[in-house]
C-alpha cells in the first residue's frame, strides 16, 4: 500500500481528470466532433506556447516532432548548427546526419550549455541556415539561455529550432516575443499526458524555409500537418483519446495561467536544490534547469539507491545517463507535482540515504524544502 | 493543479487498483460469477477480522450494520449497556431506543472511554444481556481498551457488540481470540472503498441470541444475511461494483498482512502526534486512537483553518463535532495513506498555521514526523 509516484522527467503522473476523459468511449476522427475539439485544443496550446501561430500536433514521441522540424525546415544550402551538451543534443545531431544535412556540431561539457555568444560567433560567419538547441537538456538537468540565443538568431536569416520537450510548461518560454521559430514539445512532460503526442509551433520565418524544401519524409511532413490543420484535422489517423485528454490538461494549465505554472515549477526546483544542499549533496549541473534536478550520489552510494527509493517509498526518479551513469539521479518537477509531493520525496530520499549508510541530519532536507516552499502561491 | 487528498476519517482515498476494478462493466448478481466472488471476498474478510466466522456484507453505511446488530442480537429479557463517549456512542443509544430496548447509557467525558472495570461492575449485577462499545470513537479520536472489555464480557452470558467502523484495519483487533461477539465495520474506512457497505462478524454466542429474537426489521435482518450467505449470496440486490472493488482492496490488505497494516497505522498516528507536539499543538484525547488524531486549534485560530488547508494545499481534514465544533480538527490515518502523504500534510498544516498568524518554528513539525516515520517497514 505504498503509493507509486513518478518524479521522472517524463512520463509524469497524469491527473485523474485527464485519465477519466481518456477512459471515455472512443469516437471517430473524421467527424465534426473531432474537428471542433482540435480547434479548442489548438487555441489552448497557443496560450501555453505563447504564440499566435498554429501548433501542429504530431502523433508520436517528442523525437518525432523534432525530426519533423529538422527534416522539413533546415535550409539545405547552408550548414546547421547543433548544440550538443547531452543525450538529446547528441540525438539531434544524429537526426541531422540521417537527412544528410551539413551539420556543425558544437559540443559543450555536460552540465553546461552553449552560450548566446558562441552562437553569435558562429552565425557571424554567414554559413548557417538553422540552429538547433535544447532548452532544457534533460540528461544533464541543465538549461541554456534560450531567450538570449533567440535574440542572436532572430537578427540573422537563420531559424532557431528549440527542443523544449521538458521545457514547455516548466521554464519561461515566450515563443513569439523571443522569436523562437520552432518550439518542439511532447505530451508526457508538463502537459500531463501519457506519451504519444509531439507538438510544434512554427513561425512564418520557419514556414518560408519549409516551403523551399522537398523533405524526404511522408509521415513527418510539416506541410502535411499544416494542410490538415487548415481543415481542423490531422493528416493521418488521429489519436482521439490522447487529444481529448489533452484538451482537459490544456484547460487545467490555462486555468492556472502559464506564467504561474512556470514560477511554481521554479519553486519546486529551488526547494529540491535547497534540500540537497542541506543534506550535503551536490547538484550536478552548473546551470541547473528548473524542470529537472540532477543530484550526485555521495561517496559510497550507487544506483541501487534508486531501486530502494521506489521499493520502499514508491518514488520513481530517473537514472543518470552515459557519463553520469551510476553517479547521479534526476528528479523531475514537471507537470502534475505539487509541494507536498516534493516534500514527501525529500523525506524518502533522506530515509534511503540513511539506509545506504550515509550520515545525514535526518529532517534537514525536508526543513530546507519546507522553508522554500513557503512561497508557494 | 493542487492534488486533492483525503485525510478525513472516512471516506478515505481509494486506490487506483480498486477504482479501475469498479469501473469495469457490471455483471448480474444472481450468477455463479457473483457467488464465486463472494466466497473469495468472505475468505479475505475473515483474515482481516481474524475470525473463523462468516462476515456478513450488508449494503448500506456502517450505521446499517450496527443497527442490524443491535436490532437482531440484543437479548430482550435483559438490559443493554451502551457506552457513550462521543457522537457514535450516542448514536447507538438512539438506535437501541428506537427498538424499545432497555438501555443503560453510560456516558464518559469526551476524550476518554469506558473502562473494562466499569463494564465489569455493571455486568456483575447480572442485569445485562449485551454491551455496545465503540472501539475507535471517531468524533473524539479516542480508543477504548477493547481487548480488556472483551475479556470481561466473555466471562458472562452477555454479548459484546463493538463498533469497529474506524478501528477495523487500523487498530489491533483479534475478533475470535479476544472474544468480540459482533464486530461492525464499514467500507469507506481502512477497507479503502467508497461508502456503501457494512460488515458484521457474528460469533456463535451472538447467533444464539439472534435465534431467540424475532427482530422487527426486514432489510437489516441478520438471519436473512446468514441464510443468503449459506448460498454464497446476499438476500437483496447486491452492489456488484462495490463488492468487486472490495475483493481488490481485501487482497491488497492481505498481501501486506493485517498486523503490519496496524503497525503502519500506529506509526502514522505517532508521527502526527509528534509533529503536533513539536508545533506546540495540543492533542484533544486523553486516550488517542491510532486511527484518527484530534488536534486542538491554538489560540486565535478558528475552523476557517480547514478551508484554507484544502484550498491552498488540497488537504481535507475533518471538522470537530458538537462540543469540539470549531475547536479542533481531525486527521485520519485510515487506509490508503502512507508516510509521504502524512509528511506532506504536516507541511501544509505548518503553512496554514503561519498564514493564520500562529508563531511556529517552520519545519519543526515535518522534522518530528520524519524522525518517527524513519521506523516505517
What spatial form of chain A do the alpha-carbon principal axes imply? globular
CATH superfamily of the largest domain in chain A: Type I PLP-dependent aspartate aminotransferase-like (Major domain)
Strand content of chain A: 15-25%
Give me the CATH architecture of the largest domain in chain A, please. Answer: 3-Layer(aba) Sandwich
How would you summarize what this structure contains?
Chain A has 377 residues and is an alpha/beta fold. Chain A is 43% helix and 16% strand.
Strand and helix map with partners:
The structure is a homodimer of 377-residue chains.
Chain A: E1 5-6, H1 16-22, H2 32-49, E2 55-59, H3 62-73, E3 79-84, H4 87-98, E4 103-107, H5 116-123, E5 128-134, E6 136-137, E7 142-143, H6 146-154, E8 159-163, H7 175-178, E9 182-186, E10 197-202, H8 204-211, H9 222-230, H10 240-256, H11 258-278, E11 292-296, H12 304-313, E12 315-316, E13 318-319, E14 328-332, H13 339-355, H14 364-373
Parallel strand pairs in A: 1-12, 3-4, 3-5, 5-8, 8-9
Antiparallel strand pairs in A: 2-10, 6-7, 9-10, 11-14, 13-14
From the structure above, extract its key features.
Aspartate Aminotransferase, domain 2, alpha/beta, three-stranded antiparallel beta sheet, homodimer, 377 residues
Task: Walk me through this protein's architecture.
The structure is a homodimer of 377-residue chains. Chain A is an alpha/beta fold. Chain A folds into 2 domains: 5-9 and 258-373, Aspartate Aminotransferase, domain 1 (Alpha-Beta Complex); 16-256, Aspartate Aminotransferase, domain 2 (3-Layer(aba) Sandwich). Chain A has 14 helices and 14 strands. In chain A, strands 2-10-9-8-5-3-4 form a 7-stranded mixed beta sheet, with helices on both faces. The A-B interface holds A 1-3, 5, 15, 23, 252-253, 256, 261, 264, 312-315, 336, 338-341, 343-345, 347-348, 350-351, 354, 362-363, 366-368, 370-371, 373-374, 376 and B 1-3, 5, 15, 23, 252-253, 256, 261, 264, 312-315, 336, 338-341, 343-345, 347-348, 350-351, 354, 362-363, 366-368, 370-371, 373-374, 376.
Amino acid at each position: 500500500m505504498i503509493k507509486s509516484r513518478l518524479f521522472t522527467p517524463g512520463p509524469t503522473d497524469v491527473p485523474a481528470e485527464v485519465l477519466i476523459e481518456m477512459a471515455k468511449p472512443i469516437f471517430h476522427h473524421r467527424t465534426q466532433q473531432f474537428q471542433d475539439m482540435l480547434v479548442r485544443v489548438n487555441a489552448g496550446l497557443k496560450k501555453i506556447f505563447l504564440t499566435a501561430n498554429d501548433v501542429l500536433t504530431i502523433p508520436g514521441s517528442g523525437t518525432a516532432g523534432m525530426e519533423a522540424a529538422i527534416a522539413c525546415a533546415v535550409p539545405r544550402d547552408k550548414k546547421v548548427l547543433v548544440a550538443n551538451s547531452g543525450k538529446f543534443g547528441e540525438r539531434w545531431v544524429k537526426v541531422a546526419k540521417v537527412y544528410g544535412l551539413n551539420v556543425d556540431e558544437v559540443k559543450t561539457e555536460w552540465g553546461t550549455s552553449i552560450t548566446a555568444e558562441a552562437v553569435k560567433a558562429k552565425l557571424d560567419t554567414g554559413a548557417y541556415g538553422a540552429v538547433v538547441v535544447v532548452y532544457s537538456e534533460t540528461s544533464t538537468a541543465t538549461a541554456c539561455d534560450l531567450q538570449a540565443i533567440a535574440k542572436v538568431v532572430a537578427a540573422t536569416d537563420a531559424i532557431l529550432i528549440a527542443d523544449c520537450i521538458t521545457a514547455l510548461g516548466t521554464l519561461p518560454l515566450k515563443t513569439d516575443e523571443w522569436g523562437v521559430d520552432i518550439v518542439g514539445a511532447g505530451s508526457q512532460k508538463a502537459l500531463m499526458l501519457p506519451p504519444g503526442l509531439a507538438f510544434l509551433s512554427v513561425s512564418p520565418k520557419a514556414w518560408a524555409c519549409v516551403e523551399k524544401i522537398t523533405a524526404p519524409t511522408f509521415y513527418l511532413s510539416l506541410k502535411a500537418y499544416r494542410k490538415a490543420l487548415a481543415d481542423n484535422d490531422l493528416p493521418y489517423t488521429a489519436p482521439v483519446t490522447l487529444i481529448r485528454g489533452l484538451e482537459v490538461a490544456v484547460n487545467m494549465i490555462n486555468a492556472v495561467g502559464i506564467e504561474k505554472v512556470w514560477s511554481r515549477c521554479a519553486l519546486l526546483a529551488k526547494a529540491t536544490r535547497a534540500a540537497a544542499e542541506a543534506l550535503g549533496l551536490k547538484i550536478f549541473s552548473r546551470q541547473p534547469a528548473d524542470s529537472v534536478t540532477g543530484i550526485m550520489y555521495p561517496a559510497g552510494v550507487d544506483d541501487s539507491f534508486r531501486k530502494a527509493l521506489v521499493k520502499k517509498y514508491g518514488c520513481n526518479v530517473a537514472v543518470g545517463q552515459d557519463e553520469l551513469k551510476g553517479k547521479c539521479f534526476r528528479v523531475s518537477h514537471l507537470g502534475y507535482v505539487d509541494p507536498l509531493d516534493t516534500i514527501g520525496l525529500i523525506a524518502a530520499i533522506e530515509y534511503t540515504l540513511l539506509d545506504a549508510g550515509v550520515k545525514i541530519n535526518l529532517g534537514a532536507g525536508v526543513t530546507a524544502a519546507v522553508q522554500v516552499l513557503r512561497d508557494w502561491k
